[in-house]
Write a structure and sequence with these properties.
single chain; 11 helices; about 65% helix; globular
Length: about 260
């Protein structure tokens, strides 16, 4: 009971404070360091904050993963609060009075949560698998990029430790034993379900963009734009024209137009 009261008091305090002017989103360097799974999560959070119309500044750090409270990027610093990973950041933003899904009715919210779980559980795990369980990708891309900020021999030690941690995580989820073809089939089935739900609309729900749109964009756009040892993953996404159009629409509306700013 005491813990619940304390949590309620903290939530009330957070809600009563305005969105800070100096909010920073910390993530690894994109060009030389960040890997496919982390980049997808970082882009999803950026997209969500853009959709909410909230000001923030992206800060690149080589040690963003180790600075993060959960050990996973990205993380948000908003005043005295530090929050990491997509779902907790979305919850924090909602506590501050900014929610994209409050316009949905209860059945729609339940449906949205099911699709969120599908995306994170399929695309998220597939990205981890390809990055760290596929021997070619791990040796040619993941270990070199992950270890790039560190001196020898620390770079070797940290890269292999990260690979071991991810492989154990995927083993616990039943993904480590999958073949690469089975992973591609999982991705294809997920894309098929998303394409069917999206139809010919701009967003997954008629009321407008939600966290589902931000998360899907983060994953699909990253898959489409990240160089890997082959193009199979991106080619799967490209089979679904409405998902490609979805990514183009989100990029234009919430990134390109925001960067250009208002016209005179």
């Amino acid at each position: 009971m005491t813990s619940l009261l304390a949590d309620a008091a903290i939530s009330q305090k957070i809600a009563s404070e305005p969105w800070p002017d100096d909010v920073c989103l910390y993530q690894p360097y994109k060009l030389q360091q960040v890997l496919l799974p982390d980049n997808a999560q970082c882009l999803a959070v950026q997209c969500y904050l853009q959709m909410c119309g909230l000001p923030f500044r992206t800060v690149l750090r080589t040690n963003a993963e180790h600075m993060s409270p959960s050990g996973k990027p990205p993380f948000l610093r908003a005043g005295p609060y530090v929050i990491s990973e997509v779902e907790p950041i979305i919850k924090f933003v909602s506590t501050k009075g900014h929610s994209l899904s409050e316009k949905l009715d209860k059945p729609q919210q339940a449906e949205m949560k099911a699709y969120l779980a599908l995306v994170q559980g399929t695309l998220g795990n597939a990205e981890l698998y390809i990055s760290w369980c596929d021997p070619t990708t791990a040796s040619e891309i993941s270990r070199p990029r992950y270890s790039s900020p560190y001196p020898w021999p620390l770079n070797i030690i940290l890269a292999y430790r990260k690979q071991w941690e991810v492989q154990n995580q995927l083993k616990a989820l039943g993904w480590a034993s999958k073949s690469l073809e089975e992973v591609y089939d999982e991705v294809d089935n997920c894309c098929k379900a998303l394409a069917q739900r999206l139809g010919n609309h701009h967003y997954f729900f008629k009321q407008g963009p939600t966290e589902l749109d931000a998360l899907v964009f983060g994953h699909l756009y990253t898959i489409l734009t990240t160089p890997l040892t082959d193009n199979t993953l991106a080619d799967i996404v490209k089979e679904y024209g409405n998902l490609i159009n979805f990514c183009r629409h989100i990029e234009k509306k919430f990134f390109e137009e925001r960067e250009r700013g208002p016209r005179d």
